[in-house]
Backbone:
């Protein structure tokens, strides 16, 4: 009986904690089924020619990623971050020809 | 009533300590939500960690925590809530992966940062804690080895989970949040420091010496201890203590035994221990003068917690130890309330304290009903197991006004409870303690 009482006590406590965890989640994201939305920031440029993310987004580069991203391999970047629709549309021009995937001025500066 | 209030108070404190720190994460310029299921997964991860950290308090044997419930209830709660916390910890990655299947790719330690590996290792350590606790006997693991593994794996799990949390660094970027969770992690370790360091140091200053070892009927031994240089321990009859004999108070090996001596005598305490083939079989070889240490008293199984017009004791085997402590105490107090003892044993020769019980009948309003499993020739008393029929024959008419104390093997406790229920005894009048944890 005492063991059963302990289990009941733990079950009630655990249930209350789950309810409070649900409350936390609802406060942060009130819509239940928005889970399919991609929450990582989208990549605002095409990927062609930019395989080495760290060149521009390393901690000491021009547009660094947040420090909490430190440690992820380069292959990991596109597992969460995808190019935006806008960036995909930019891959071709109005005649369907592939665009140069980066600003010419910036590349010229690098050369 | 007072214990009920205390009990509710501690459950409230537990809820606050496990969930309030999660809501503190939302204070100030908090991070944006990332979808309900992901946030639920995160909340379960945080609460699972907080619940696991608080386990060190539950097993710290703090009297303020254990007194309202009884230490056995606290230990059973520790065991049950561990499984629930582990469930939360399992759900943390499972919900994450189910709600966003791409996440599973991130769990690859080869391409992920160190704190993902820390999370995975924390999970494995939690798994080791749970698996060794649930299957210790099936794994052939001794209690001492299990205890070491349990402690080390639990500390490793909590430490690695904290590393994981700080590495993810989403909700703990703020100084308040980061400080709170790091502070809590340090706080969780304090009971461990208390139990493993402070308490043994205190015990070192309050040693006992073995005053005598007496053979009792029923392959049992009474181990008497005398306080060495201090006043001794004040306990309630029916309580127990963890004792270490011939070892340092820092030793892992300790054993819980019920006091069998009168609570009115602090200058010499005794424990009655039945030989069961393990450490208990070495008691007879303990030499008087050997140093011993006590951690106690503990437990809620005592007449002093349950005032009543009279008491019924139902016991089998070495379950007589806490009962004789209560009877000796009542005798020393010259108590005249009616007492009834049902004592289940194999044969009269195995009745531990048989002679003393007969003497106590002269000093107390005590009736004893022996129930023999293997009755000798000419035995005219009760036989078989303690049952509803046997108890009905001996209990007085006002039996619902009495308080019942049941102590003995698990099976006996279970069947006696059922029998008492059949006799109309309210279960809140039936007291027992159960110590089968791992």
Residues:
């Amino acid at each position: 009986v005492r063991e059963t009482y302990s289990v009941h006590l733990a079950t009630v406590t655990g249930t209350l904690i789950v309810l409070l965890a649900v409350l936390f989640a609802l406060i942060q994201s009130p819509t239940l089924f928005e889970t399919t939305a991609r929450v990582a920031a989208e990549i605002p440029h095409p990927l062609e020619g930019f395989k080495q993310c760290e060149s521009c987004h390393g901690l000491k580069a021009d547009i660094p990623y947040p420090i909490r991203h430190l440690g992820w391999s380069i292959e990991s970047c596109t597992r969460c971050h995808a190019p935006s629709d806008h960036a995909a549309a930019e891959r071709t021009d109005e005649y369907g020809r592939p665009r140069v995937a980066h600003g010419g001025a910036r590349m010229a500066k690098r050369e | 009533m007072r214990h009920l209030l205390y009990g509710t108070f501690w459950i409230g404190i537990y809820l606050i300590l496990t969930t309030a720190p999660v809501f503190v994460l939302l204070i100030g310029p908090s991070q944006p939500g990332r979808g309900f299921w992901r946030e639920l997964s995160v909340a379960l991860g945080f609460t699972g960690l907080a619940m696991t950290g608080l386990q060190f308090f539950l097993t710290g044997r703090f009297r303020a925590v254990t007194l309202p419930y009884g230490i056995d209830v606290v230990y059973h709660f520790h065991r049950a809530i561990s499984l629930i916390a582990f469930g939360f910890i399992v759900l943390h990655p499972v919900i994450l992966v189910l709600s966003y299947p791409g996440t599973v790719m991130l769990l690859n330690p080869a391409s992920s940062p160190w704190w993902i590996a820390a999370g995975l290792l924390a999970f494995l350590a939690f798994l080791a804690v749970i698996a060794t606790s649930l299957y210790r006997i099936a794994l052939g693991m001794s209690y001492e080895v299990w205890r070491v593994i349990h402690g080390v794996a639990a500390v490793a799990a909590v430490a690695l989970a904290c590393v994981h949390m700080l590495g993810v660094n989403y909700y703990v970027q703020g100084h308040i949040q980061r400080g709170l969770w790091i502070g809590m992690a340090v706080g969780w370790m304090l009971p461990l420091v208390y139990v493993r360091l402070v308490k043994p140091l205190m015990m070192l200053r309050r040693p006992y010496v073995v005053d005598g070892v007496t053979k009792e009927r029923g392959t049992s031994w009474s181990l008497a201890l005398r306080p060495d240089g201090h006043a001794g321990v004040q306990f309630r009859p029916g309580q127990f203590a963890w004792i270490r004999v011939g070892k340092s108070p820092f030793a892992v090996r300790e054993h819980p035994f019920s006091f069998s001596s009168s609570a009115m005598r602090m200058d010499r305490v005794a424990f009655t221990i039945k030989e069961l083939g393990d450490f208990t079989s070495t008691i007879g070889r303990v030499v008087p003068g050997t140093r011993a240490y006590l951690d106690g008293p503990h437990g809620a199984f005592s007449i002093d917690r349950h005032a009543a017009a009279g008491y019924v004791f139902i016991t089998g085997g070495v379950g007589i130890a806490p009962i004789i402590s209560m009877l000796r105490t009542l005798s020393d107090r010259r108590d005249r309330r009616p007492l009834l003892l049902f004592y289940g044993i194999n044969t009269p020769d195995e009745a531990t304290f048989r002679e003393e019980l007969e003497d106590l009948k002269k000093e107390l309003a005590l009736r004893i009903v022996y129930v023999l499993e293997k009755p000798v020739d000419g035995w005219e008393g009760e036989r078989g197991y303690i049952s509803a029929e046997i108890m009905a024959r001996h209990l007085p008419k006002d039996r619902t006004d009495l308080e019942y104390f049941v102590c003995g093997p698990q099976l006996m406790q279970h069947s006696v409870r059922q029998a008492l229920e059949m006799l109309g005894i309210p279960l809140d009048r039936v007291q027992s303690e159960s110590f089968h944890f791992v």
Notes: The interface with chain B takes residues 1-3, 5-7, 9-11, 13-14, 16-18, 20-22, 24-37, 39, 67-68, 70-73, 75-76, 79-80 of chain A (CB under 8 Å). Residues 53 and 74 of chain A are 7 Å apart (CA to CA). The longest helix of chain A spans residues 2-28.
